[in-house]
Amino acid sequence: MHEAGLAAAVASALRGQDLDGARIRLLVSGGHGDEDAEDAALRTHLSITAPDLDWESIEIVHLPTPRACADCGAGFEASRSDQPCPDCGGSALPIPTPESIEIELEHGHDAPA
Question: Which pLDDT tens digit goes with each residue over 44-55?
């Protein structure tokens, strides 16, 4: 993930928004795998880019992306690289796709814990 660039774009999109009591979710699609490491790097860059926002309370959701089974070769979609093939249980290989982030901002909720 190009975390620094994505962090700058997310911070820019949220600046000036009324975030008081809002639920914020970042919907990530694409990528190369290792979602936990990508999330940690994105949170680090977000905290540097906009330290005034509580980035730890923002939910990061990975959307299903194309995968290929390393064992049987079947194609399938999964939101995490560690999800097994639904046909044989084999390991998933990521199919590199461009990454994007959508911001889901929902008002009327208490701030996430």
Answer: 999 999 888 877
**Where are the extended beta strands (E) located within the chain?**
23-31, 59-62, 65-69, 75-78, 92-94, 97-106
Angle, CA 70 vertex, CA 39 and CA 76 arms, to 5°: 65
- Are 46 and 7 within 8 A, CB to CB? yes
Query: pLDDT digit string (tens) for 35-44?
Result: 898 899 999 9
Cβ pair 30, 38 in contact under 8 A: no
In terms of DSSP bridges, do strands 59-62 and 65-69 run parallel, antiparallel, or are they unpaired?
unpaired
Residue 37 dihedral angles phi and psi, to the nearest 5°? -65, -40
